[in-house]
Amino acid sequence: MNQGRTIFSQLISFLPDWEFRRCVERYQGDLRLRGLSCWDQYLAMVFALLTYRESLRDIKACLRSLQGKLYHLGFRGKVVRSTPTDANESGDWRIFADFAYRLIATARRLYVQEPMGVDLDECLYARDSTTSDLCLKLFPWARFRRRKAAVKMHTLLHLRGNIPTFIR
Fold first, then answer.
1. In the chain, N or C terminus with fewer CB closer than 10 Å?
2. Residue 93 burial by CB count (10 A; 0-12/13-18/19+): exposed, middle or buried?
3. Inter-residue contact 157 to 125 (CB < 8 Å)
């Protein structure tokens, strides 16, 4: 029987949780909380990403099947059927955006000496624009064409380490 920590909790231990708490305090994310805390919501989304979950229903089903092990994965609150949905609807997205930019800044410091394959003294950037299709009935605010919805993401990529510098 395994007596150590799960791989997921070992991966999460590399994240600066004190930085995340600062982001939560800045936007008062846990102030009027009814469901998941911001940290538990973040863990649920990271877990979904790492386990290739495809929908919110899939995330909920997977987390419910692991209900007895969630504490060992790093979750502190109880994940019931509607809490991930409620947390995504009412949570402040700026908390996660700030934390992402903090992680990007940390990664950029780690890759400062990484070779690019091109002998340049200056920084080299690549710009990318990606369009993600959405269902028009579910996202009427994202009208892209007459019968289609979409969102567009612009990314500026620092080629030393392939780290995003700017995302909009």
1. N
2. exposed
3. yes
As separate numbers, helices (DSSP H) first and strands (DSSP E) second, the chain gives 7, 4
Q: Is 112 helix (H, G, I), strand (E, B) or coil?
A: coil
Query: pTM (2 decimals)?
Result: 0.76
Question: Which residue shows structure tokens 């949570």?
Answer: 91
Phi, psi (rounded to 5 degrees) for 47: -60, -45
- Residue 99's pLDDT is 94
Structure-block tokens of residue 64: 């419910």
150 strand-pairing partners? 133
Q: What is the mean pLDDT of residues 12-28?
A: 91
pLDDT reading at 29 higher than 80: yes
E strand segments, the chain: 125-134, 143-145, 148-158, 163-167
Token pair in block for residue 144: 């892209």
The pLDDT > 70 percentage for the chain reads 92
